[in-house]
Write a structure and sequence with these properties.
The structure is a homodimer. In chain A, the strands form four sheets. A five-stranded mixed sheet of chain A has the order 5-4-3-6-9, sandwiched between helices. The first copy, chain A, is globular, with a radius of gyration of 23 Å. The first copy, chain A, folds into three domains: 70 residues, Winged helix-like DNA-binding domain superfamily/Winged helix DNA-binding domain (Arc Repressor Mutant, subunit A, Orthogonal Bundle); 126 residues, ATPase, nucleotide binding domain (Nucleotidyltransferase, domain 5, 2-Layer Sandwich); 154 residues, 2-Layer Sandwich (Nucleotidyltransferase, domain 5). Chain A is an alpha/beta fold. Chains A and B meet through helix 1 and helix 10 of A and helix 1 and helix 10 of B. The structure holds a DNA duplex.
DNA sequence: GACATTAGTTTATTCATCAAATCAATGACA
DNA sequence: TGTCATTGATTTGATGAATAAACTAATGTC
């Protein structure tokens, strides 16, 4: 039960001050006070505390033309560092970052066939990377991106690899002495998009891969449903008595609009061996009519999916993350014009810019938010290197 | 910007105390302190304030077998009264209630063809009813149930009557000097179900009438999307290139599962004049095979809708409110067994008990919550009379 | 009638906010 | 060069709400 107390007030205001400092990059005490509607005395006290904790630093004066020059405050971005590991079906990717998502370094390995030893694999992976030295807090959080359903920080259902029953979080936590956050990949993706790219209050992010995932932001917060199964949008039905889906349903969305299905249809047209996306792309750019037909199908099915998302969640913006939108970003305009319902309000449909980095960047955010206690993070500078 | 302050602490704790008193019907100061984890001193101070404001009364001692007998506290349910008016397409229903949803009185009139004068119609309706006398606060809130989309306490889109552009809330507020809350009918419905019947954290409530509405409770709160259009589930597509819907789409859910469509299909089978639900019901109970076929369709389409709701919102419970479930409540079991996806977690599918009173009772709750500042209301006793 | 037990109140303390005064720094201007 | 207006930041005292601990109140038991 969250009741009111002095500590609660301080917590709320401290987090707001931190949030204000981060989201404004550099800001003075006076400006924070004005922004939050708190008195300068309060802000001074809170800032002093944050400076003592080495979470905030003074970075010199701003250039104003009247009165005393303000002292600019900034997050001490090297106070510690965070790690996100995306456990993909084929590849495990690890990203180390400072506290604002800058100065990242990436390492990738193959996902082992047998995942029973996953905790040790992850420990070895992290220890093989160059970790920042001599920071006040060192490693302050690890996020794991999982292709599956998470409940209570544990994998409760993962169709592509067997992680259920293994307590990954605890294993890593006790070894690194830092909090470990498990999260669904589609959820991390939308958090990454919100934090680094599209700062809207309500976002739907569709990830089209072999299946289809959906991450939802509602009122600036991740919406995961009561046991983490919300946004299993790939298994909503868009065709009565439609194509059989392995899940047991007939006519699931991902049996139509997934990359796997569309390439499969393309292969059938070509009557050849399994076609890759790259082969499809080359053919499309060469003006191949079959490829055009497949792209039309993608637009048609995706517009149905987007219509259903609009009527279910009513977001401000829909982001589509897929190979199709990476190579043909203007396809989102076609999807938008394929929407037919007069019930829909005005909406933006955009291709993902972060593409396959959105999961890792989203994981970085989760760990940073967890460490700093900040609710609504907004970061800008991205600089990925291998 | 919500910042921390002394007043915020008191507000939070006062609302928690009120909530505890209401949801426990009668409870002592000591028990409240234990329940909330606050000290007895704090609770005593807050309760004294509430008694002074005539919102809480002492109702005698409880019978315990050891120590001093506790003084039981209760909400002063006659401190004021609230009104909900459901503006239906054909009928306007008004319900007056005390502050716990007991002691209600109902009045219904026909919806006027011309709704330009709606404010005066509502004022006349309210003033023609017997309002409680000599209460400390008198009328403390009016909720209007609207068959349409609400944004900023105004009707932004209503397909069945023309209310856009009329500032109903302001007109009533200035006349009765009480806050007026506009809300979508499907949203009120789910609030009513949650408060009076099914106390779950995550609820989906499907209202099947001529169209199909959906009210969603997420984490104990109504989920309405950023401009009130979430839950327009009737216009999600369940059939590619399906039946034409007036909204512009093809294959909308409500073109299949709505009462209007199913009766229309039944009429076509019978090759007669338009069949009513009553005619359908009589035939079904007489063993008519066409009626059985229609009911099978209802189960089939509804199970698709429920599947999509589960994968979109992941609620704890799905409530179905329709003529079909009123007369054949066990049909929800058939719908449940028609679910095929192994992605779905365990779920309860139940028929609405409140039926057509859910909107009015939900509206009563909205007004009570607004007046008392209570977040999570739980009420029990229902006693409707005409 | 002493005592254990529970309910509720009183009192002193703590702590975070606020308002107002004060100190600090800086450019404008005479 | 020195005064002043202006803005930034800190200090000080007051306020209010929570807490802990002591105290009063009420009641049944032995």
């Amino acid at each position: 039960m969250v009741t009111g107390s002095k500590e609660l007030i301080r917590d709320i205001n401290t987090n707001l001050v931190l949030e204000t400092i981060i989201n404004n990059t550099a800001i003075s005490r006076a400006a924070i006070a004005k922004h939050l509607g708190l008195t300068k005395a309060t802000i001074s006290a809170i800032v002093q505390e944050l400076i003592n904790k080495k979470l905030v630093i003074e970075i010199g004066s701003d250039d104003t033309n009247l009165g005393r020059k303000p002292i600019l405050l900034s997050l001490h971005k090297k106070a510690g560092f965070v790690i996100c590991i995306d456990i993909g079906v084929d590849t495990i990717s690890a990203l180390i970052s400072d506290l604002i998502g800058e100065d990242c370094s990436l390492k990738q390995i193959k996902t082992p066939k047998n995942t029973s030893n996953i905790v040790n694999v992850l420990i070895d992976l992290i220890e093989s990377m160059k970790l920042p030295k001599d920071t006040p807090y060192d490693l302050v959080g690890i996020t794991l991106g999982i292709h599956g359903v998470i409940a209570n920080n544990q994998v409760s259902f993962a169709p592509y690899y067997n992680l259920s029953g293994i307590n990954i979080a605890e294993g890593l936590e006790s070894h690194f002495n830092a909090p470990v956050y498990l999260e669904n990949e589609a959820n991390l993706s939308v958090i990454g998009e919100k934090t680094f790219q599209y700062d809207y209050a309500n976002i739907a992010n569709i990830s089209v891969h072999s299946g289809i995932g959906l991450g939802i932001i509602v009122n600036h917060q991740l919406y995961a449903g009561y046991n983490g199964r919300a946004g299993e949008f790939g298994h909503t039905i868009i065709e009565i008595d439609g194509k059989q889906c392995p899940c047991g349903n007939k006519g699931c969305f991902e049996q139509y609009a997934s990359e796997r299905n569309l390439l499969h249809e393309y292969t059938k047209m070509k009557n050849s061996e399994e076609q890759s996306f790259e082969q499809f792309r080359v053919a499309y750019e060469a003006g191949d009519l079959d490829a055009y037909k497949i792209m039309d199908d993608f637009v048609k099915y995706m517009s149905i999916g987007v219509n259903n998302i609009l009527n279910a969640y009513n977001p401000d913006i829909v982001i589509i993350n897929s190979s199709f939108t990476i190579f043909f970003p203007h396809i989102t305009e076609k999807i938008e014009s394929a929407l037919t319902s007069r019930m829909n309000s005005y909406i933006r449909i955009v291709p993902s810019v972060l593409q396959d980095t959105s999961i890792l960047l989203g994981g970085i955010c989760v760990a940073i938010k967890g460490f700093l206690g900040v609710d609504n993070l907004k970061l800008n500078h991205i600089n990925l290197r291998g």
